[in-house]
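Late entry, written up from scratch paper. The run itself happened at the end of the previous shift, but nothing got recorded in the book at the time, so transcribing now.
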Amino acid sequence: MTFKELEDFDDFDTESIYWAAVSGIPERFVNEAKRIDGSDYSGECFGVCIQYDKKTEEFAAIEDSPGHSLYYVDNLGYKHWLDYRLSGQELEKIVSKIRMFIEEECGEK
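Output as recorded:
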């Protein structure tokens, strides 16, 4: 799985939430998304959500329920959280891109 772009972020007092589009999705999740959306399936609609804790300065993958950290947005705009847990390596790659965004867009380190 690879980071494509940062779609949005929410900045709160104690944390920031980053919504990242991803690609290179394993085939079984592509098939699940095709089952959900049928002919309206789009391979551009996968993402992950990453939390940044401002106090501890740590990043973590957000899961809708345990083990569900990948989502697919259907053609009606609903998120379907899939049974996929980001590996530590995948999380680090995405976090490095988010850090670059923070530095470039927000002037922070």
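The first strand starts at residue 2 and ends at 11.
(Scratch paper discarded after transcription.)
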